Amino acid sequence: MDYTIKILENGYLYKNYITVADINPLNKTITCTDAFHNQRMFKFGDVVEVN
Questions:
Q1: What pLDDT score was predicted for residue 39?
Q2: Hey, how many other C-beta atoms are within 10 angstroms of the C-beta on 29?
Q3: Cross-referenced Pfam families, in alphabetical order (predicted)?
């Protein structure tokens, strides 16, 4: 699924268009791929908004 998310990281607010690859509720992480096929992992607490 493709989403636009806003993430708070190091005091900066980032907005990314991503494809969610995995949601791990035990570790509270979201693994995703951006438009350039870079894989990133975010913690639930870092995500500010999902559209």
A1: 95
A2: 15
A3: YolD
**pLDDT over 80 at 1, yes or no:** no
Task: Please classify residue 10 by burial: count the beta carbons closer than 10 Å to its beta carbon, then call 0-12 exposed, 13-18 middle and 19+ buried.
Answer: exposed
The reported pLDDT for the residue numbered 20 is 92
Q: How far from 22 is each of 13, 15, 17, 27, 30, CA to CA, in Å?
A: 22, 19, 15, 11, 6
Parallel/antiparallel/unpaired status of strands 29-34 and 12-24: antiparallel
- How many folded domains does the chain comprise? 1
**What is the residue range of 25's domain?**
2-50
